[in-house]
Automatic annotation (TrEMBL):
CDD domains for the chain: RaiA
Biased composition (Basic and acidic residues): 91-105
GO molecular function: ribosomal small subunit binding
GO CC term (a single one): cytosolic small ribosomal subunit
UniProt protein name: Ribosome hibernation promoting factor
Key words of the record: Translation regulation
Region named Disordered: 91-111
UniProt cross-references to Pfam families, sorted A to Z: Ribosomal_S30AE
Amino acid sequence: MNVNLTGQGLELTDGLRSRIEEKFSKLERFSDHITGAHVILSLKDKQQTAEITLNIAKGKDLHAEATSEDMYQSIDELAGKIERQLLKQKEKAMTAERKQGQEIRQEEEEA
């Protein structure tokens, strides 16, 4: 997965880069279809915001945002939010596949 990192109003330190790589490298275990991620870190009026947009090959792109007074806390919250979105998307896909399989079986039984 390709991770693009952008800082708005703050300098991207090695610590921030390593934290982002650590948190978002784990996202690949939820979906094999993630093609890229764009992470934006910004500082506005003592509020530190982290945003992510995930590009997914088989599905809709996902976006999440987290704001707190500490950038590392924002990154952690952001990772949790995007993981929940990925799990929800995966569950929806599995449910749709199951419904399709049930419909096919019902058609076979009727025939």
